[in-house]
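Figure 3 (text version): structure tokens given as input.
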């Protein structure tokens, strides 16, 4: 029986290995992690991540050919193929801080593999890493090899959160990069056979190592670039009276462009896009390509612009101040169908509003109060400012600047405005008449995800702002529109 071990039981390691176990009953899969709480959760009924369809897959395989363990060394020692799916965040200090990928976790995983291995192994880069990482990993492994042979493969993951199970079951492609030697080709073939259990062969692409590593960064950069492009257009739509949904529909009808990933929004979030583009920017700079670096950096700049533009629009629409006004935040996760808040635009929007002394009431169906508090705790707030304006009812905010509630109606009660920051399906079905009646007047709604029916809400009485849509006369006529 082939044995696979995956180091890192996160958003990628967990679901990816669960699908391999489901589709390859003849393979034993162990997912290991240094985090005891994460592994306990994987072994419980309350999985550590929310991902539609994941529970069923894990329940079907766990204890049969899928195991979650903190005994990292034992499972690495026993494995024929070791996937490394540890986190590779942006460096926060030292050389390349704020841009380069932090490979501390990766390096420590590689050193541990070198320490415990007693037999030849295929080591698979599943994490997103800078191009040429395989060369560095090869050096770590071979310098400590004790005669053991390693083949490094790059097998980047293209799943998106919220649709991970479907993406893994029916991937557009699986990419495997390896050394162009006979041992390298053999290793590529071994990994290809794992995926061939359920992925059609023409969707399994094989390339050299550097192409595979770079393709992952390139794919994320291209995807994020589409969002920044349509978001840049959304600002121009608001200035001219064009409607960004109509523009993106018309643009996407061109088969060379295609309709997907053209939704204007309050900005992209998630653990990957910003991190991977910054990483790409750093690699370009290190390779003496400042113009190329600047080109990709612009994608991030537009994303930051879009978030601050949204905050400015809220503040300027509400008489240029949100101080002590209750604002309901609907959605905190970076997209629907996930509880992940990494780099969510909600953090910047909430911090911007708190900076203007708003009182927030936040509701997200999958994000806990603890998580929201952690995410927002980076700022020092001015808690002592006296209340001059009509405050939102203290019973609903508890006198705090941020309150987390478990119901959208509760969040909106007595609020001056509503911000929609995540496109959860349940927000489309809300009774906005009921919400309007429970709010302070004039009642504002700011849709950062284009999910509401603007005309319907205007008829109810709301002053509506929806990104990239023609502006309400109320907002258009303001002296200092954002
Ligand atoms: P994550 O933070 O959810 O999981 C990483 C796990 O690795 C953590 O549980 C951590 O405890 C563990 N870990 C770190 N060092 C370890 C070590 N030395 N030994 C054992 N365990 C260790 O991260 P993620 O979202 O799963 O991302 C993992 C990688 O995949 C990143 O490089 C990311 O860029 C890439 N990726 C992520 C996504 C996504 O949607 N999240 C998609 C594609 C690729
Ligand atoms: C992304 C890539 O899609 C995936 O291939 C890669 O493996 C990891 O990074 P993820 O970050 O999980 O996946 O989600 P994605 O669906 O790409 O959304 C990222 C952000 O872009 C979200 O905040 C989303 O709301 C936003 N987005 C997406 C838009 O604003 N408009 C769109 O049209 C699409």
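Below: residues designed for each position.
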């Amino acid at each position: 029986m082939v044995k696979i071990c995956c180091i890192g039981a996160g958003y990628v390691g967990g679901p990816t290995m669960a699908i391999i176990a489901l589709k390859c009953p003849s393979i034993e899969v162990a997912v290991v992690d240094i985090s005891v709480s994460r592994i306990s959760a994987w072994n419980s009924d309350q999985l550590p991540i929310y991902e539609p369809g994941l529970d069923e897959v894990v329940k079907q395989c766990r204890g049969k050919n899928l195991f979650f363990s903190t005994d990292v060394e034992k499972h690495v020692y026993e494995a024929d193929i070791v996937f490394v799916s540890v986190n590779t965040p942006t460096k926060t200090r030292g050389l390349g801080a704020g841009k380069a990928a932090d490979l501390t976790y990766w390096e420590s995983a590689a050193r541990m593999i070198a320490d415990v291995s007693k037999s030849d192994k295929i080591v698979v880069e599943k994490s997103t890493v800078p191009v040429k990482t395989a060369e560095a990993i090869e050096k770590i492994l071979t310098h400590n090899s004790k005669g053991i042979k390693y083949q490094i493969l790059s097998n980047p993951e293209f799943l998106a959160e919220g649709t991970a199970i479907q993406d893994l079951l029916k991937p557009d492609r699986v990419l495997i990069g390896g050394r162009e030697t006979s041992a390298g080709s053999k290793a590529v073939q071994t990994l290809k056979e794992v995926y061939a259990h359920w992925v059609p062969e023409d969707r399994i692409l094989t390339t050299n190592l550097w192409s595979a590593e770079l393709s992952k960064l390139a794919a994320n950069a291209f995807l994020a670039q589409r969002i920044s492009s349509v978001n840049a257009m959304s600002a121009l739509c608001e200035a001219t009276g064009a409607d960004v949904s109509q523009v993106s529909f018309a643009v996407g009808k061109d088969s060379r462009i295609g309709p997907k990933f053209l939704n204007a929004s309050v900005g992209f979030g998630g653990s990957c896009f910003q991190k991977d583009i910054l990483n790409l920017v750093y690699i370009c700079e290190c390779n003496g390509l400042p113009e190329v670096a600047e080109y990709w950096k612009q994608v991030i700049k537009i994303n930051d612009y879009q978030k601050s533009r949204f905050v400015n629009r809220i503040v300027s629409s509400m008489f240029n101040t949100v101080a002590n006004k209750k604002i309901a935040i609907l959605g905190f996760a970076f997209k629907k169908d996930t509880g992940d808040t990494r780099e969510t635009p909600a953090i910047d929007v909430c911090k911007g509003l708190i900076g203007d002394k708003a009182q927030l009431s936040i509701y997200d169906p999958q994000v806990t109060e603890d998580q929201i508090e952690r995410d927002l705790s980076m700022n020092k707030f001015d808690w002592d400012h006296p209340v001059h304006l009509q405050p939102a009812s203290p019973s609903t905010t508890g006198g705090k600047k941020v309150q987390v509630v478990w119901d959208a109606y509760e969040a909106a009660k007595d609020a001056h405005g509503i911000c929609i920051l995540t496109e959860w399906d349940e927000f489309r079905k809300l009774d906005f008449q009921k919400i309007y009646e429970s709010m302070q007047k004039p009642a504002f709604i700011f849709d950062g995800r284009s999910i509401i029916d603007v005309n319907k809400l205007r008829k109810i009485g709301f002053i509506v702002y929806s990104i990239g849509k023609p502006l309400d006369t109320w907002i258009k006529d303001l002296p200092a529109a954002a």
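The pocket of uridine-5'-diphosphate-xylopyranose (ligand 2) is lined by residues 157-161, 220, 223, 227, 261-263, 265, 268-270, 272-273, 334-335 (CB under 6 Å).
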